[in-house]
Amino acid sequence: GSNTDIHRGKVRWFNALKGYGFIDPVDENDKPILPKGVTPTDKSDGGIFVHQSEIQTDDPALFRRLYNREFVEFRIVLDEKGRQKAVHVTGPDGNFVKCILKQKSEAAAGSESSKQE
What we know:
Elements: E1 7-15, E2 20-25, E3 48-51, E4 62-63, E5 71-78, E6 84-90, E7 100-101, H1 102-109, H2 111-114
Parallel strand pairs: 3-6
Antiparallel strand pairs: 1-2, 1-5, 2-3, 4-7, 5-6
């Protein structure tokens, strides 16, 4: 198919601090589509790389992240090394991904620095 095909997947894991993670493609019954010999718990193999910059939100002030086992929709492109990566990542049915407000995450991270004023 063309790279405009929309795929469905389930987030295997996502590191919000590093801003990336991996998605397992799923079929129409939400069963993982895995390469032969790969289990869903094997973090190093299979899975489609996803970077936080591809997560579609309706608010630029949101901290873009995915949650483990969340369902998402995405398109697949190949990076310069020929590996699959997810782009234009949305929630189910093309909805915006539920992210967290940046203010909360920054407040949690910056609570020490604000005391020095």
